[in-house]
């Protein structure tokens, strides 16, 4: 068991497999007796519900504000209390999603990152799942009967992918998200064991 509860984040474009990897890792932790909480952004709080209900995207600045306020709420309502209680947190999207998705709309990625770092607890590790945009679009289409959200256009995901691939952070672990989910999951576990040898899983 790790000395302290971990805050683990999965990032990547839509269709990269983040939600599946969050589910698999949380189940692995529970099976190994490591108490954890799985969560996601947008959250289930008031700002998160507003974001999820969007049919048309607001102006970039307003969109960034909504995600920032949701993150503040999510931190104080879910993430920080869980960590304080000794629970490892596995999160689907976090700060770098704002950097990539709102950055792709013309806002400064550096400014977004600075604004979030002013209040957001840093993840202990961020797994960035990388997958070609056309494959991501095929996955989304298969999973939802060709129904795409306002964040999932081809040009949009291409711009988002470009920002993700340009991120520089020693705490980011880049993983090829193209193989079968179980194979990707085992790669995640291998990396966690290497970083924290005392983590028995």
Mean pLDDT: 93
Low-confidence regions? none
What structural class do you assign from the helix and strand content?
A: alpha/beta
| Whole-number tally of structural domains | 1
Question: How would you describe this structure to a colleague?
Answer:
This protein is of the alpha/beta class. It has a single domain (7-195), classed as P-loop containing nucleotide triphosphate hydrolases (Rossmann fold). It has eight helices and five strands. Strands 2-3-1-4-5 form a five-stranded parallel sheet, sandwiched between helices. Helix 1 packs across helix 8 (181-195) and helix 4 runs antiparallel to helix 5 (109-117). The chain is globular. The model has no long low-confidence stretch (mean pLDDT 93).
């Amino acid at each position: 068991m790790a000395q302290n509860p971990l805050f683990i984040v999965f990032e990547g474009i839509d269709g990269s497999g983040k939600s599946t990897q969050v589910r698999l890792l949380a189940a692995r932790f529970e099976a190994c007796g490591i108490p954890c909480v799985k969560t996601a952004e947008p959250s289930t709080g008031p700002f998160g519900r507003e974001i999820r209900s969007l049919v048309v995207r607001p102006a970039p600045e307003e969109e960034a504000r909504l995600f920032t306020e949701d993150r503040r709420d999510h931190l104080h309502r879910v993430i920080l209390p869980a960590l304080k209680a000794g629970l490892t947190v596995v999160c689907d999207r976090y700060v770098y999603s704002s950097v990539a998705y709102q950055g792709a709309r013309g806002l400064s990625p550096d400014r977004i990152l600075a604004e979030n770092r002013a209040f957001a607890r840093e993840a202990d590790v961020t797994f960035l799942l990388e997958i070609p945009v056309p494959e991501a679009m095929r996955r989304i289409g298969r999973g939802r009967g060709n129904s795409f959200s306002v964040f999932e256009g081809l040009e949009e995901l291409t711009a988002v992918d470009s920002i993700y691939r340009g991120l520089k952070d020693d705490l980011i672990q880049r993983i090829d998200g193209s193989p079968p989910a179980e194979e990707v999951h085992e790669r995640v576990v291998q990396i966690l064991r290497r970083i924290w040898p005392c983590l028995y899983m």
